[in-house]
From TrEMBL:
Keywords noted in UniProt: Transferase
GO biological process: cobalamin biosynthetic process
GO MF annotations, alphabetized: ATP binding; corrinoid adenosyltransferase activity
Keyword Transferase in annotation: yes
UniProt xrefs under Pfam families: CobA_CobO_BtuR
Source species of the chain: Virgibacillus profundi
Entry annotated with the keyword Transferase: yes
Designated name of the protein: Cob(I)yrinic acid a,c-diamide adenosyltransferase
Length: 181
C-alpha cells in the first residue's frame, strides 16, 4: 500500500513568498496519512537550530535531516560549499534508493542559486535534472526554495510560485517561534 500506480511526480514550490517549506510539510503530512514512506532533506537549515516542523514530522514518523549549516548570509562561502558537497550525494542516493515514496529536497533551489562561489562543481544542475528524469518510477519528488532554475521548472510536473504581497519582516518583525521556527 502507499504506492500510486501513476509514475511519481516532481513538484516545485518556488517564489519570493513565505510558505514553500510549509506547503511541502503539508504534503508530507498528507502522504504519511496515506502510508507513504516520506523523507525530507533540508539543504540550508542547520541541525544546530531547532525548527518546529522537525519535531512534528518526527512524531508522525517522517524522517527529516538538516544537511546545511545555516542561512547563506551567516556563513562563509567555503563553509556552504563543504556542506553542499556532502549534502548532494546524500540527497541523490536517498531519491535513487527507491526506499521512499516521497522525498522533499527543501531549499535545494536556494542552494542552486548561490553565486558567492561556483556551485556547479559541488551541486551540478545537470545532475539534479538527471535525478528528476531518472528517479525510480514510484518516487514523488518535491523541490522547494526561491529562484528555481528554468531547467528545473521545465523538468517538473508542477510548479507553484508563492508570491509575496506583504510581509511582517519588512516592518522589523523577526522570525516567530511556531511560524518560522
Amino acid at each position: 500500500m502507499g504506492r500510486n500506480k501513476r509514475n511519481g511526480l516532481t513538484l516545485v514550490y518556488t517564489g519570493d513568498g513565505k510558505g514553500k517549506t510549509t506547503a511541502a510539510v503539508g504534503l508530507a503530512v498528507r502522504a504519511a496519512g496515506r502510508e507513504f514512506k516520506v523523507k525530507m532533506l533540508q539543504f540550508i537549515k542547520s541541525p544546530r537550530r531547532t525548527y518546529g516542523e522537525k519535531y512534528s514530522l518526527e512524531k508522525l514518523g517522517i524522517e527529516m535531516d538538516q544537511l546545511g549549516i545555516g542561512f547563506t548570509w551567516l556563513k562563509t562561502p567555503e563553509e556552504h560549499r563543504e556542506a553542499l558537497k556532502k549534502a548532494w550525494p546524500i540527497a541523490r542516493d536517498t531519491v535513487m534508493s527507491g526506499e521512499y515514496d516521497l522525498v522533499i529536497l527543501d531549499e535545494l533551489n536556494n542552494a542552486l542559486a548561490i553565486d558567492s562561489f561556483p556551485i556547479d562543481d559541488v551541486l551540478p544542475l545537470n545532475e539534479v535534472i538527471d535525478l528528476i528524469k531518472n528517479k525510480p518510477s514510484h518516487v514523488h519528488l518535491v523541490i522547494t526554495g526561491r529562484d528555481a532554475k528554468q531547467e528545473i521548472r521545465d523538468a517538473a510536473d508542477l510548479v507553484s510560485v508563492v508570491g509575496m504581497e506583504k510581509h511582517y519582516y519588512n516592518e522589523g518583525v523577526n522570525a516567530i517561534k511556531g511560524i518560522e521556527l
